[in-house]
Amino acid sequence: MFSRIAIFFSTMATVKFGGAYRDAGGLSPLLAGTLGGLLATWVTFVPCFLWIFLGAPFIERLRGNVAVGGALSAITAAVVGVMLNLAVWFALHTLFRATTPLVAGPIRFDAPVPSSIDPAALLLALGAAYAIFGMRAGGITTLLGTSLAGLALHALGANG
């Protein structure tokens, strides 16, 4: 569980670092990116853990309440849906260099262009899947291994 939380926070901080780095305003890009990543981590981390630490004693008392249990189950399902949406979006935009938007009424989907697949990203994704499911490696171990492999591929010029 801790590794999933660590991966979430590191992904979120990386995305915010990139956004602040690209639009640094009057600051240097590195300083803006660092401040953006730290601020995003702080405003995400602190309220969540304050809620957990302050609310935990009350949740135990509500455990038997059917209405509250149903509401918490609905919230859990919504959070899982958001995480799945993000996982699919990141996978599509990491594995494929180009996507085509498909729109059908209120539904919008970025369909991958098969000819734009990034072989290095595919290799890293397959390696991570094998590490997690085949070798039963933990999230942190897999993240470190694929990060080092990605750096090696970049050094060899396989970054597209």
Please, could you describe this protein's structure?
By secondary structure, the protein is mainly alpha-helical. It has a domain at 1-63. The chain is 74% helix and 8% strand. The protein has helices at 2-22, 29-62, 66-95, 119-134, 139-155; strands at residues 99-104, 107-112. The protein has a two-stranded antiparallel ribbon. A hairpin with a 2-residue loop joins strand 1 and strand 2. The longest helix is centred in the first third of the chain and has 34 residues, at 29-62. The mean pLDDT is 83.
| Content-based structural category | mainly alpha
Rounded mean pLDDT score: 83
Quote the distance from N terminus to C terminus. Answer: 34 Å
Specify the biggest β-sheet. Answer: 2 strands, antiparallel
Number of DSSP strand runs: 2
Q: What is the H/E order? A: HHHEEHH
Number of helices: 5
Q: How much helical structure, as a percent, in the residues? A: over 70%
